[in-house]
Design brief:
- The structure is a single chain.
- With 280 residues, this protein is α/β, with parallel strands linked by helices.
- It folds into two domains: 63 residues, no CATH class; 202 residues, Vaccinia Virus protein VP39 (Rossmann fold, 3-Layer(aba) Sandwich).
- The strands form two sheets. The chain has a seven-stranded mixed β-sheet with strand order 6-2-1-7-8-10-9.
- A hairpin with a 4-residue loop joins β4 and β5.
- The radius of gyration is 20 Å and the shape is globular.
- 32% of the residues are buried.
- The chain binds S-adenosylmethionine (SAM).
- The site of S-adenosylmethionine has 22 residues, from loops.
């Protein structure tokens, strides 16, 4: 079912009026594709789609989930995790408390990967980790910390690529793998650590009231247009500590002038000190 730009505009305008969701600034191309898929899958025209979303909150959540892409995996892009390890050691060992925010965390695999890594680094006890997402459904899975074996098994290789630097690493210390039931469950001492909350990056701002030593926001901004990306990058710059780090997705980059305020290693952005900025 074909969706024209004016249909997208109508969808965004109306959704904004009857719900908390505002998709202004999502990149038109992928948004159109997702909307077309929803209409086709449900054999619906735009009119009835919008009506049903307004009447039925479960359906509204379903549409939001379909519009946003939720794919994730443990230790996604291992090369970035490997580059992050020495940075974390250097910056975090001297801190009393480490605050980390995974913005757009989807079902939580990235959050648990981080906690496993912090445990191996001996930093687990002083970390506070927050995972947020627009979508309540994915957050429920994240809180349950229980995954289909298939969703983990496929990525044991990622574990190997990152965790082989820790000679005593044993995944069974962190995960209960039940092959018979086809389930992987994150052990409770890890799963109880993060706080998961609903948060809309576009309009909710810093709901925490403090700054973060590390913000991971990977494979989220790629779905936003450049203007919105720039706004969020500025927000992240202001929301990390003076020595803070921002990690974005492998296929994302900061193009606005704020990039000059960071040193960059791949998709890892290290906030420059005021001195660095002036020397630039
Ligand atoms: C592709 S997943 C990325 C998950 C994880 N960061 C990773 O890289 O594996 C993108 C996530 O961003 C979330 N998202 C999309 N728009 C958002 C917004 N405005 N505020 C917060 N999260 C959003 C989606 O719900 C989805 O779970």
């Amino acid at each position: 079912m074909e969706v024209a730009p004016q249909d997208v505009k109508r969808f965004i305008d109306e959704t904004r009026q009857f719900s908390e969701y505002d998709f202004e600034g999502y990149s038109l191309k992928s948004f159109t594709r997702r909307l077309e898929k929803i209409l086709t899958d449900n054999s619906m025209a735009m009119d009835s789609l919008l009506k049903k979303m307004q009447k039925n909150s479960k359906f509204l959540e379903y549409v939001v989930k379909e519009i946003t892409v939720n794919t994730t995996e443990p230790f996604r892009t291992p090369s970035i995790w490997n580059k992050l390890v020495p940075i974390m050691k250097e910056k975090f060992e001297k801190l009393d408390t480490i605050n980390i925010w995974h913005a757009g965390c989807s079902t939580g695999q990235e959050v648990y990967s981080m906690l496993i890594l912090l445990y191996e680094l001996g930093l687990f006890h002083k970390v506070k980790v927050y995972g947020t997402d627009l979508n309540e459904d994915v957050l429920e899975t994240a809180r349950a910390a229980k995954y289909r074996m298939h969703d983990f098994e496929e990525y044991w290789e990622n574990f190997d690529k990152v965790m082989s630097q820790f000679p005593d690493f044993d995944k069974h210390k962190y995960l209960d793998v039940n092959s018979r039931r086809g389930v992987v469950k994150v052990k409770s001492y890890i799963a109880e650590k993060p706080i998961f909350a609903k948060h809309n990056l576009i309009k909710d701002g810093n709901i925490f009231g403090f700054k973060f030593d590390l913000i991971m926001c990977r494979n989220v901004l790629i779905y936003f247009d450049h203007e919105l990306q720039d706004k969020i990058f500025k927000f992240f710059y202001e929301t990390i500590t003076p020595d803070g780090v921002l990690v974005i997705g492998k296929h994302e980059s900061i193009l606005s002038p704020i990039q000059r305020k960071f040193n960059r290693i791949d998709s890892i952005y290290l906030k420059k000190t005021e001195e660095d900025v002036w020397n630039f």
